[in-house]
Amino acid sequence: MGAQLMKKSGGTGRRRRRGGAARMSEINVTPFVDVMLVLLIIFMVAAPMLTVGVPIELPRTSAGALPGDQEEPLSITLSNDGSVMIMSSEVDPNQLIPQLRAIAAERRDNRVFLRADGAIPYERVVQIMGALNSGGFNNIGLVTDEGGPRFDGSSN
Fold first, then answer.
1. Given its phi and psi angles, is residue 9 left (phi above 0), alpha (psi -120 to 50 degrees) or beta?
2. I need a labelling partner for 86 at 20 to 30 A (CA). Which of 34, 45, 62, 146 fits?
3. What value does the CA radius of gyration of the chain take, rounded to a whole number of Å?
4. Confidence class of residue 78 from pLDDT cuts 50, 70 and 90?
């Protein structure tokens, strides 16, 4: 199956091997490729079935969702005039870290959304991000508006 016999080509034929034919030294890979393709198809069909799992019906309960899931995310706003606001109340920038620590002690979620005006220098935004980190909030999301530059050569 893997090796075939070939007739000796060329020459006068005086010196012949005992079998009368020379062995072919090349391996035929066609059956190997066929088997691999069949295995590939089998795994492609079987893989989606493995992720489905066993259908079950979960028990019902009267308990509500965890309180951390319903918590409103904290929002910090940097306005164009330099004022800092936690949610909707203005905060003295010198008292920002102690107030953030007090808020972090009461909250289960350490996510915070930072809304900074586009005209504010990058240095100021980074300073506020450092204050958020010092205050116990290390999951910071920057809030933006849609419609900015795409940087892929196409227009908006």
1. beta
2. 146
3. 36
4. confident
- Which segments within 29-132 are labelled E, that is strand? 74-78, 84-86, 89-91, 111-116
Return mean pLDDT, the chain.
Answer: 79
Contact 79, 89 (CB under 8 A): no
Looking up tokens 């009461």 gives: 106
Helix H or strand E encompassing 35: helix 30-52
Beta carbons within 8 Å of 31's beta carbon, 6+ residues apart: 1
**What is the pTM assigned to this prediction?**
0.52
| pLDDT average, residue stretch 56-79 | 70
Which residue matches tokens 């005992």? 18
Structure tokens at 35: 């088997």
State the pLDDT at residue 41.
Answer: 95
Cβ atoms within 10 Å, residue 96 = 19
